């Protein structure tokens, strides 16, 4: 039983060494199946690509959220709520807020104080200047009025002095002396009658006319003026002759009345 034919053993080895593979029928079946598997793989690959493309489109279309993923979404508030939050809810200020607010508040106050001070100084200065100007104007106005009064009194005195008539000599002389001070009148004490007689005997007729008058100076309640007078003088039967005089007349305010205190003939 152990002895075998050598040729038989070789045939067995040939069968065992026969190339593996499908037979003709199997090859035909495999040829039919292979295209189906390839098609299925390509279909899966196309579907996978289509799915990836859709996923990519969804990612692109989806809004990109910035910030940390764990950050909670911001709460949407209305305009009234924002205004309510903006208003201060308490009177207590932190030290930092006080330190920041103090310079900002102090500057406007300091500027306001300085502005008020400057405005007050300017107002006081303007008031003082206005008062000074008014007082000065009043003084100037009063001075002008006094000068005009002195000149007017001097004109009247010069006219009364150069207007005398023999037949009215006493009345003319009284008129002239009525506008003089007591001191000036005293110069005619005891000589008035003799003066009137001289005028009557000489037949003096003189009529004066003031040509020009101007204020010269003032001294206290007195003012001196220069007066130019032209007089038509006639003595007796002589023809009238023109006489020109320059008079320096000092008028003084005596109890509110202007009176001549001195009369000088100026060459």
Automatic annotation (TrEMBL):
Localization per Swiss-Prot or TrEMBL: Membrane
Annotated transmembrane regions: 112-135
Composition bias, Low complexity: 20-35, 83-99
Keyword Nucleotide-binding in record: no
Chain positions covered by the region annotation Disordered: 1-103
Biased composition (Basic and acidic residues): 36-57
Keywords recorded for this protein, A-Z: Membrane, Transmembrane, Transmembrane helix
UniProt name for this protein: Mce-associated membrane protein
Organism lineage string: Bacteria, Bacillati, Actinomycetota, Actinomycetes, Mycobacteriales
């Amino acid at each position: 039983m152990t002895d075998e034919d050598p040729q038989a053993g070789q045939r067995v080895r040939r069968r065992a060494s026969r190339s593996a593979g499908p037979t003709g029928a199997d090859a035909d079946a495999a040829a039919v199946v292979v295209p189906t598997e390839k098609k299925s793989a390509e279909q899966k690959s196309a579907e996978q690509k289509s799915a990836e493309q859709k996923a990519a489109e969804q990612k692109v279309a989806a809004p990109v959220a910035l910030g940390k993923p764990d950050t909670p979404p911001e709460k949407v508030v209305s305009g009234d709520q924002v205004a309510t939050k903006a208003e201060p809810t308490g009177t207590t200020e932190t030290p930092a807020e006080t330190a920041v607010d103090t310079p900002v508040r102090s500057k406007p106050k300091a500027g306001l104080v300085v502005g008020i001070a400057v405005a007050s100084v300017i107002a006081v200065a303007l008031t003082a200047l206005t008062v000074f100007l008014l007082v000065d104007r009043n003084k100037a106005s009063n001075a002008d009025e006094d000068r005009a009064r002195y000149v007017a009194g001097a004109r009247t005195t010069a006219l009364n002095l150069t207007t005398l008539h023999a037949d009215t000599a006493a009345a003319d002389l009284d008129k002239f002396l009525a506008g003089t001070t007591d001191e000036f009148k005293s110069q005619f004490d005891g000589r008035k009658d003799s003066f009137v007689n001289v005028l009557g005997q000489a037949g003096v007729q003189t009529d004066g006319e003031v040509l020009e008058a101007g204020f010269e100076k003032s001294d206290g309640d007195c003012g001196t003026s220069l007066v130019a007078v032209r007089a038509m003088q006639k003595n007796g039967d002589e023809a009238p002759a023109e006489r020109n005089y320059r008079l320096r007349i000092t008028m003084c305010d005596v109890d509110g009345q202007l009176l001549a205190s001195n009369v000088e003939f100026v060459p």
